[in-house]
Specification:
The structure holds two protein chains of two kinds.
Chain A (H helix, E strand, L loop, with lengths): L2 E3 L4 E5 L4 E3 L2 E3 L6 E7 L6 E7 L7 E2 L2 E6 L4 E6 L8 E9 L2 E4 L3 E6 L1
Parallel strand pairs in A: 2-12
Antiparallel strand pairs in A: 1-4, 3-9, 5-6, 5-10, 7-8, 8-9, 10-11, 10-12
Chain B lengths: L3 E4 L2 E4 L4 E8 L5 E7 L6 E7 L2 E5 L6 E7 L2 E7 L7 E8 L11 E2 L3 E5 L1
Classes of the chains: A mainly beta, B mainly beta.
């Protein structure tokens, strides 16, 4: 069974600094997709960044980038120049076919 | 109204009640999902619909009954629930389930369900 593990229940970062959230997953498949979603307090979950497993190049979206290590089954999210609006719950997710698996989330606090 | 909407936002029900959750998406998508979000647990995918056809039922108890009358609407009918069913129920939609694409899921705000 596929599982997604986020080993950091809570993280904090100083405003303007960089933080990395970790995610590992378990799969025997070679073709799949990975996502990071953000859920701000009392607001809807939104996509932060996505990665296709067949692509070796790490995805980037402005201040957000990933470190995708396929052999290690690791998919970490780096947030650069952290802003107060980045404070949220971050979920790592894996998709294979019609199945989606999420981690337990990492709560990120941004300190002014 | 745009995006994915869910009603009601909050629901309190007894174990013998029957209620329904509603989800509507205004994005022209063809795939819709129900998730259960409980504290300290991973988001659990419950049901998946693609072009109104159910494609996945992840061993969800029969007291949860989904309905997808068209690609824009998704319902979750609830009956004889248990207290452990209390959670945030999220609806999501995406373009469709075509393979080879990392389609983004758009989530609704959720329905906070409390079962007494």
């Amino acid at each position: 069974a596929q599982t997604v593990t986020q080993s950091q229940p809570e993280m904090s970062v100083q405003e303007a600094e960089t933080v990395t959230l970790s995610c590992t997953y378990d799969t025997s498949e070679s073709d799949y997709y990975l996502f990071w979603y953000k859920q701000p307090p009392s607001r809807q979950m939104i996509l932060v960044i996505r990665q296709e497993a067949y692509k070796q190049q790490n995805a980037t979206e402005n201040r957000f980038s990933v470190n995708f290590q396929k052999a290690a089954k690791s998919f970490s999210l780096k947030i650069s120049d952290s802003q107060l609006g980045d404070a949220a719950m971050y979920f790592c997710a894996y998709r294979r076919g019609n199945q989606f698996y999420f981690g337990t989330g990492t709560s990120l606090t941004v300190i002014p | 109204e745009t995006g994915v909407t869910q009603t009601p936002r909050h629901l309190v029900m007894g174990m013998t009640n029957k209620k329904s959750l509603k989800c509507e998406q205004h994005l022209g998508h063809n795939a819709m999902y129900w998730y259960k979000q409980s504290a300290k647990k991973p988001l659990e995918l419950m049901f998946v619909y693609n072009f109104k056809e159910q494609t996945e039922n992840n061993s969800v108890p029969s007291r949860f009954s989904p309905e997808c009358p068209n690609s824009s609407h998704l319902f979750l009918h609830l009956h004889t629930l248990q207290p452990e069913d209390s959670a945030l129920y999220l609806c999501a939609s995406s373009q469709d389930l075509a393979s080879g694409r990392a389609d983004e899921q758009f989530f609704g705000p959720g329905t906070r369900l409390t079962v007494l």
